[in-house]
């Protein structure tokens, strides 16, 4: 990454925050409606100091991790079955496409009714929101495997579960990783949305609580944290894995 | 001793709604330790024939006998080397070479011992820890051959393995292929559209006719080895194959 690139970026954000501060100081809107970056930063520090921020982050991340793990595990199994067994594809496959069009937040009422206002309900929303993206990408990945890979592997004695773990999954991995990435994006939206509605701990709940107190600077502070975590996971975790996979698979 | 025998192999391709006869009664006997090259006009079905021998496709009529027993599926005694190598990009060169051994449940220590031998034979030792994307096309084919040899098959089935190589790399591999064949005593079935290649490699060249194809002629090749593509003594042999092949290639253009 060039130095200019970084410089431009820093200049942009410094300018943005400065403009925000100036607009807040002019006082077009009252400060309890339009907080200044200084107030947001102050709130961020307070929530960090009293531990509620870290507790919220940890709570949301645990739900995300649990839901995403279920989604990835289930999605891979479902996707491989759909790709390898035509009957499963024709039947379950059409249902998956339908279910995928349901926003994860729309599962919340059902989750509350089934599980109650607790962790399990939120994890359910996260998992169900992410699983079909993983399923569809795994399916596409397995379908797009160079048939010579499978023929060569079978010729060399791979069969059954060996064929799946030693060839199908690694060969489909470039597609699967984009499924994980999409799944994570859905899961992240899902966890925050569900927490807002469940109003039961986590970053979403902090957001909800701040809204109840009409604490605008707190709302913005939590939103910034949500954005930062999103950027970090996208940029650090996925970009790295993707770069490695792409070059190794010769896709770049 | 006959290692492989093709008896009246017939194969149809389904093309849209109608069936197209690709192979029209292919008969071939391959002696143990022979190096048989299959040449023919492109699209004649020689690769399909090889895939049937491998057990990757089923013939519509006829059968393949391996040591007198009919072939029904793929087996480790008949290993295919694909045109593009079909190497696994997620594995290092060594792990690619060891793949079949791993599938057979052979312990790591023994696998390493075996793969070392073939990595050395194919001059790949330096690249054992590379990934395939780091290799040239020629190197990839060396890996593909090593991966097949590790299985210690009776028969190697090679589907135009050198078609994508540049001339120098190909010449080098043509010489090495002869050495490997002499050293390992494998029976080799080698599909190519390159007549010079077949003249250099084969103990026998089987010429396929145009579709629906059968084997039009088999020519023995007893020239001393190692042979190279620019051997003048091979030129007449190449001419003879070419004169058999030319009318067949011409027919493909009349389709």
Helices and strands, with pairings:
The complex is a heterodimer of chains A (252) and B (255).
Chain A: H1 3-26, H2 37-49, H3 52-84, H4 86-100, H5 108-115, H6 119-143, H7 147-155, H8 161-198, H9 203-212, H10 216-248
Chain B: E1 2-15, E2 18-31, E3 35-39, H1 46-54, E4 61-66, E5 69-70, E6 78-81, H2 93-97, H3 99-103, H4 108-121, H5 137-149, E7 155-159, H6 167-184, E8 187-191, H7 195-201, E9 204-208, E10 215-220, H8 235-253
Parallel strand pairs in B: 3-8, 3-9, 6-7, 7-8
Antiparallel strand pairs in B: 1-2, 1-4, 4-5, 9-10
Helix pairs in contact in B: 4-5
Architecture overview:
The complex is a heterodimer of chains A (252) and B (255). Chain A is an all-alpha fold. Chain A contains ten helices and no strands. Chain A is globular and about 75 Å long. Chain A starts with a helix and ends with a helix. Chain B has 255 residues and is α/β, with parallel strands linked by helices. Chain B has two domains: 2-77 and 154-253, 3-Layer(aba) Sandwich (Rossmann fold); 92-152. A six-stranded mixed beta sheet of chain B has the order 6-7-8-3-9-10, with helices on both faces. In chain B, helix 4 (108-121) packs across helix 5. The longest helix of chain B is centred in the C-terminal third of the chain and has 19 residues, at 235-253. Chain B is globular. In chain B, 46% of the residues are buried. Classes of the chains: A mainly alpha (252), B alpha/beta (255). The A-B interface holds A 146, 148-149, 151-158, 162, 166-167, 170-171, 173, 247-250 and B 54, 56, 74, 76, 78-80, 82, 84, 86, 88-91, 99-100, 102-104, 131-133, 147, 151.
